[in-house]
Design goal:
single chain, about 250 residues, 2 domains, six-stranded mixed β-sheet, four-stranded antiparallel β-sheet, disordered C terminus, ABC_SmlMolc_Importer, plastid, nucleotide-binding, ATP binding
Length: about 250
Amino acid sequence: MLKVEGSSIALKNVKKKLGNFSIINNVTFRLIPGVLVALLGPSGSGKSTLLRVIAGLEFADEGEIFYYGKDVTKLPTQMRGAGLLFQSSALFNNMTVFENVAFGLNTKIQKFSNDSRREEWIIKRVNCLLALTSLKTFSKKYPYEMSGGQRQRVAFARALAIDPKILLLDEPFSALDVRVRKRLRKWLKKMHQLIPTTIVFVTHDIHEAIEMADQVMVYEKGTLLHNGNRKQFLRYLRSREDLSMYPTTYGKAN
């Protein structure tokens, strides 16, 4: 029986179909708090749909989803409290970096009784996030003035603005060139050491999973085939006869 207590994310018998095709086939797992998890699968495996269901952007046909023991299965995204980051940084080009990170914070700070205290809190919170993500010198810049890697760091800071206990990342570096991707992988790994947040990131790159994740879940054709730590994942890879469906930025997996 799945133990929901003590987990950051738990899925129990989650199913979803697109027409007659089962894109999520009775998925069950639990994650401990603060873990960095790779959801690995080839293109078309349904891994992004699974992440969207975990996030509440889509709903499962059957099953249950829990955040820290709370049933969020029927809750919309904004009521689940997870931070989201996708392939596109989805920043507002007419807003500065500071304004992008601050966007949406007003829904988080209704506790303040007057506008001056609210504004003071926003400035303090955003400056803290910009310092954390090494973006303080970019606060007055606009997204179109920045590189792709810098824009993704802004998007990451914005995702952290609501102080989420869970971050869900859908191939956040895949649109970037290889050198920038490698640099941002190291950066995200370092960030994770500073924030007590459960992070799930979708990837189709085996070496990205090995390099970054504490835990790897292998997802193919709507089915969770493997869920284990890095050492267990490497053993799993050696047992596989065919990995040709997994492109990699570093060459053939060992």
